[in-house]
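Lesson 9: reading folded outputs for more than one chain in a single document. The general rule is that every protein is listed as its sequence immediately followed by its structure tokens, and records are never interleaved. Here is the first one.
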Amino acid sequence: MWKLTGSIRYQLYISYALLIVLVTVIYVGAFYLYESRQITTRSLTSINELSLSLSNKLDLEIQKLDNVTLSVAYSNLIKDRLLRLSGKRDPSDQTPYSADQIADIKELSEIMVAAIGPTQSVRELTIYDFEGNRISTGAMFKYTKENVTEKPWYEAVIKGGGGIVIGMPQPDDELAKSFVYFKDKYFISLFRTYFGGFGEAKGIIKAQQDAATIFSSLIDLERLSGTGKRFYVMDESGYQLYPYDGEDKTGRYYFEQRASQERHPVYVDNPINGEKELVSYHLSEETGWLLAVVTSKNELFASLKQFTGTAAAITLVILIVTMLFSYYAAQKITKPIARLHSSIKKIDLNGSLQPRQHPDSGINEIEALHVAFQSMQANLQNSVDKLLYSQSQEISSKMAALTSQMNPHFLFNTITTVSIMAEEGMSEEIARLCQKLSSMLRYISSEESNVVSLGAEIDYTSAYLECMKIRYQDDLTYTLAISDELMEIPISKLIIQPLVENCMKHAIHVDGPWRIKVEGYVEGDEWRITVSDNGPGMSEDKRRLLNDKIDELEATGRFPGLSVDGMGLLNIYFRLKFTYGEQMMFMIDTAVQEGFSITIGGPLAD
């Protein structure tokens, strides 16, 4: 078998494979784009023509109602009979109708039936005059005395000034009570004002038709299997007219989508399942209705997807054959590169960097790459060791510096306290205070370690509180409630007493007695220390300033420069961050009703 070694020529086989893939993808992609545009164009044309055709059919149904109302509005016979009927009977008269009245009612009904015509383009025709007469014919003949001004649609019809007003689809309770056939059926009503010979309004004409008849063209198309189309009809205000029954009330969503798009038809997301849909709109100038024809994009491109699947299968077979052919030629270069890649992935900055196995590829370029990688491993190991040592020294230095910042802070406040007590002649108290101060100075000046047991820190805090008790007598009470299991855990020195000192500094600004409480407890696998007082609490300005300084610390990693006064809380936050990282706790309780409360903590394991 012919063997090529010491050359990069094996990559030519990969280039051939990529070339075949590229040509195949370009061909299939170009054909897919071309066909998708063709299908989209044909579909858009088809759906636009369909929406126009359906909108015209809806207009035709409404025109039938309109034509009947026009024929009645311009019929002098009907106006004459209504006038005669109104003049023969007082609206409050409850006596039976006379023969002349019955004859007029019958003649008026026959004229209205003639206006409806044999095609029954109107299910029911009703005339209301302003004299209180109401006469209906069609599905039901009825003559009654009714006040038309009490009808809910009266104001809208009068404002129409003789133009048509189309009502929403709704059941007709009167017809439903009279005929079982009309139970649960919806009707659409068209209203028009009719006028007398001098242009004065005389009454209102109402033409009513089944909603199923008005929207029959939409219903028939939806019943056809495999159409995959849905139809919505909205009025000018965006109220859904169709579908008028059932649970599908998403018409307004498509109405709003049209208002937000500049081009039509548009692709929108189905509000229920999120699928892409193509929507074509047509606005009727006759009725003001907006028809939306909705087609699923998946069904629209079903044939294209089928072709894509076939083309993808053929392409896959070609690629498999090509890759099998290229495999044997590229084997000598891909294996050593894979081994080098595996070695690089195993580099761990947290541990030692061990030399990796020699690839033994027999290719000059791979051998040179391996030697360079081994050299890089050695250099990286040295750099990591130096970096870890440098970071360790930096953290130790910063911790020592932060701890030393607390000492002058405490000494400043304590000397001030002794000075005040001396002025007040409190010699015995000064002696006790000096004893406590001596033990505290030994604690804070010890250079053995910056880490002490929590018990030692509590003893130091207790000595400080006793000093304050000597100074303020009965004005100060304090409580130390520390769980025994916390006494031996290691913590940073001078991390609890500054919290107590912070409470003392702010609590004395209100009238005594002042109460200081220190609690220590275990929560899960972490320790917690809570220090609280009954002072005035922390103002919003100081809280905001502290948060700004903490944000600055997090962003820069440097401790912000502050004077001795006011640096305690930020100092503690920084040292907790250095010691415990993301496992630290530093929380100021904003929910307390009075005073100030702060909780710090960290993991027990550390």
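And here is the second record, again sequence then tokens.
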Amino acid sequence: MRKITLFLLLSLSFLIAGDVVDDFITKQSEVESTLLDANLSTKEIKSIKKSQKVDYQEFFLRCASNQELCVQNKNPYKFIINRLKLKEELKKSSKVDQLLLGQYLLKNSIRGTLKEVLTHTNSKSKHFFEDKVYETISKHFSETKIIDTNKFHIDDLNSSIESEREIIDNVKIYMALLNVANTFSSNLVDNSPNIYRTATLSKSKIISSLNKINETNFGKKANSYLVNINFDLAKVTLLLSVIILILLVQIIVKYIVDYALRYYKLRADDIEYIQTHITNIFNYITTLLIFHLIFIINLGIDIESINISKLFAVLYVILTALLIYRIANTIFFLKSERMKSSKVLKNEVLNLIIKVINALIIIVAIIIILKLFGVDLTALLSGLGIAGAAVAFAAKDSIANIFGSISILVGNVFEQGDWIETSDVDGTVVEIGLRASTIRTFDNALISIPNSELANKGIKNWSRRRIGRRIKMSIGVTYESNFSDIKNAVEDIRSMLQEHAGIANEHTSFDDPNREARLVSIEDFKGIKRTTLVYLDEFADSSINILIYCFSRSVVWSEWLEVKEDVMYKIADILERNHLEFAYPAITVHQASESNREEIPKR
């Protein structure tokens, strides 16, 4: 019986000689046997598994690109499996036969799984293919009966008895194959996206058409020279076609961009900037694509080319992010003048939007790059959540400033160009940033103040005035003045201010284009002051004072000064007409006469 089993094995060895799948399974069985060695260190196990992972990737890509090599219509295990099953049914199988049957059933499941998975690469959807991979693995390995190796237990693992030694060896082989099946399944799932892409590419009509070039007489002759540089005529044709296509695309894009820029009548320096800083980045991306194709065509579809493609993908992401970044900022720059005049969007909000968009572009690019390198983003974000608490504590001032900027913008406390005054600074707001706001003082110094401080301070916003910039003065006339003249002068000044074109009064109207539902005084909310007061105010030490309190129509400083100057000239005219003189600080000394002087008694 042993001779018959040996004969079957020899016959099978001839059947599967040169079989790619069986050779791979045998190689991986040896690897798993090595991993079962208890004397290996953790470093050695890690190194073997890393090499094993690369072997699986290369094997799957090889099968996906050349399916005929890995998928055979004849099953080389069918004959011996049937014979071993027949012996089992006839109850003539030995323990070694049972173990052999288990080994070939595992190999058959691996082969069957691979064959069915490769047939599913014809699927139109990658997601459908990946679902079929899970389904196929589950189906094939659920049909394979797992042998309980405990019933083949032999106490002396170093037994010199030939029959026992044979059982021990076959148990080890079965255990190794069982591990191969598990490792094969997990790696098949991990590599399913690459398998699908490679198979789809290898089946394309372009590839098959190019392969026909190599079959021509000219192709065979040219390939005899090109083979030394790992090229053939089909690869050279494909490469030249793609290079010509990319160069044409570059020319067309440059022409379209140039035509569009001139159509919108942009300035010459803007056109030059866009061509050098934006169009050139597109040219860099397409040129990089040429070098990428040279590497892929030269290396073929294998694990090395995939690793190189990842590096190229990182460069694509960086250049594309830079391209989007510059396009977004250029659009904002070109539209900035129109946006500045918008009554809906404020300049500081636009600046904040630009910064947020730029930050999002960088964050998305980093996430894509991490994803390309297989980083588990869920675990990374979880780790960042834990570290975030520590970072937040360390950067609490920066976070407070960010919320301060949000508070200023949402509360509409001030905006760019406003004249504000605090206890420490007085000037015009240049920019409201995420961390701090910059203010240009009236002595032309630039001051940066953290937003958290501004949000918690009392701020005078002198620019939030629609009508009315205050004019307040006290006019002093001499005590020698006639009170009827003073009364007439007060009435004349009051009339003059009521009729003055530059002074706001109760008849001054205002237009409010925005309709806001607020239960507040509109005049106080919008900054409208139309009070006019002219009264005899006080008897001072050196003068009789007339209070003048009014507001100019304009809040612009230069226009306010002009109105104030004109009012002062008119007041001077009114005083002169009413025979009144301006008083100035003076002391009047009255000296008593000799006749009225009393004699002071001597003591």
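What the second record shows: Residues 401-461 form a domain with the SH3 type barrels. fold (CATH 2.30.30.60).
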